[in-house]
Amino acid sequence: MSLMAKQQITSCGQETRNFPQPYSEGVYSGQDGHGVAQHLSEKLMTSVWISAQVGEFIEPLVEEFVECYLSRRRELEADYIGLMIMASAGYDPRAATTFYKSLPDESYSLTHPSGSRRSKMLNRPEVIGKAVAIYEQVQASKGVESFMQFSRSSVGLSA
């Protein structure tokens, strides 16, 4: 694939952006990471639990506070899973860290970590090393061992 090819990505609640490949693969695989980690189900269960615990009067405030915190954690988890998916698909995972480093160093709408935080997490030696090893296995046509045996603590998301 050409590195100059453009991909248009539209995300709910965000403007349409054009990302050059391989950055677009990093964005797509990060979205796949949300599905793999079942973040929507987790979000719904959190909402139900909070409603049951605090009642309807303060529930919106508590839910917003908790959800902002959990959303940033979910984004980091999805980034990790997406990095491994990207590497497994034969895309150089180092492109994702470069992409996140290029984003403005601010959290958008309190639901996403800053680009520098995401890049820093993905650039941790145990994370990028694992992704590059998978990528190199794919490039050498050796197949890929499962990357799904990870705990939240292995991605810096202690319970």
From TrEMBL:
Gene Ontology annotations of biological process type: proteolysis involved in protein catabolic process
Cofactor: Zn(2+)
Record's cofactor remark: Binds 1 zinc ion per subunit.
Recorded GO MF terms: metal ion binding; metalloendopeptidase activity
Keywords, sorted A to Z: Hydrolase, Metal-binding, Metalloprotease, Protease, Zinc
Superkingdom in the source lineage: Eukaryota
Pfam families per UniProt: Peptidase_M48
CC annotations in GO: membrane
Residues in Peptidase M48 domain copies: 65-124
InterPro entries: Mito/Outer_Membr_Metalloprot, Peptidase_M48
Keyword Aminoacyl-tRNA synthetase: no
Sequence similarity: Belongs to the peptidase M48 family.
Protein name: Peptidase M48 domain-containing protein
